Amino acid sequence: SQTIHQWPATLVQPVGSPLSLECTVEGTSNPNLYWYRQAAGRGLQLLFYSVGIGQISSEVPQNLSASRPQDRQFILSSKKLLLSDSGFYLCARGASGANVLTFGAGSRLTVL
Amino acid sequence: SQQGEEDPQALSIQEGENATMNCSYKTSINNLQWYRQNSGRGLVHLILIRSNEREKHSGRLRVTLDTSKKSSSLLITASRAADTASYFCATDAGDSWGKLQFGAGTQVVVTP
């Protein structure tokens, strides 16, 4: 199984509050993991990717950070949320070979 | 940044009709993939076409790739109401991290 679990599914947070979105994956060990953000009606923007425990690469400078404390756990965080952090956050894992992605169901964040 | 750009942005058709959407990209690719997203859900991989392939079929899906024009098309034949979704192309430039760049998507509505 290549199932991906994301939680929470929905989150409403005030500006300036912290954030923690969690993603856990099943299946083969040492997967490539990705965090994407999707603004309303838009495509996906790659935020972070990880090729192993503690190895995080950022694609876009922003108010967010990511961590990978365990092989199958990927966490997206912020110390102080901005209105512009609102969006649909998707965690994905890569399959070996052709880089086909399997996505989780997403976490919808609204910052008020 | 987004590599692929889909056209049209939105498409409304009736059941039984064919749906065609296009994707243009800017840089050389290793492969191009199409994904589907039902409203408020994660993306699901549909089909992958490699840079040395020109056409590929999967069930009611037909994908073409023209690397000289840096474009791809996705055709859904005999559409059904259940095909209502957003469709995204994603390009794989072949880097070692398996990153995909997604377009903004085509929203397809199939009415019974």
Overall domain count of chain B: 1
The CA-CA distance between the termini of chain B, in Å, is 37 Å
Give the averaged pLDDT of chain A, no decimals: 92
Determine the N-to-C terminus distance of chain A. Answer: 37 Å
Number of helices of chain B: 0
CATH architecture of chain B: Sandwich
Helix content range of chain A: under 10%
The name of the CATH topology of chain B is Immunoglobulin-like
Backbone structural class of chain B:
mainly beta
Q: What's the shape of chain A?
A: globular
Radius of gyration of chain A: 13 Å
Q: Can you walk me through this structure?
A:
The complex is a heterodimer of chains A (112) and B (112). By secondary structure, chain A is mostly beta strands. Chain A has one domain: Immunoglobulin-like, CATH 2.60.40.10. Helices cover 0% and strands 55% of the residues of chain A. Chain A is built from no helices and 11 strands. In chain A, strands 2, 4, 5, 6, 9, 10 and 11 form a 7-stranded mixed sheet that branches. In chain B, the strands form 2 sheets. In chain B, strands 2, 4, 5, 9, 10 and 11 form a 6-stranded mixed sheet that branches. The mean pLDDT of chain B is 92. Chain B has 112 residues and is mostly beta strands. Chain B has a single domain (5-111), classed as Sandwich (Immunoglobulin-like), CATH 2.60.40. Chain B has strands spanning 5-7, 10-14, 19-24, 31-37, 43-50, 55-58, 61-66, 71-76, 85-92, 100-102, 106-111. In chain B, a hairpin with a 2-residue loop joins strand 6 and strand 7 (61-66). The N and C termini of chain B lie far apart (37 Å). Classes of the chains: A mainly beta (112), B mainly beta (112).
Question: How is the secondary structure organized here?
Answer:
The complex is a heterodimer of chains A (112) and B (112).
Chain A: E1 4-7, E2 10-13, E3 19-25, E4 33-38, E5 44-52, E6 55-58, E7 65-70, E8 73-78, E9 87-94, E10 101-103, E11 107-111
Parallel strand pairs in A: 2-11
Antiparallel strand pairs in A: 1-3, 3-8, 4-5, 4-9, 5-6, 7-8, 9-10, 9-11
Chain B: E1 5-7, E2 10-14, E3 19-24, E4 31-37, E5 43-50, E6 55-58, E7 61-66, E8 71-76, E9 85-92, E10 100-102, E11 106-111
Parallel strand pairs in B: 2-11
Antiparallel strand pairs in B: 1-3, 3-8, 4-5, 4-9, 6-7, 7-8, 9-10, 9-11
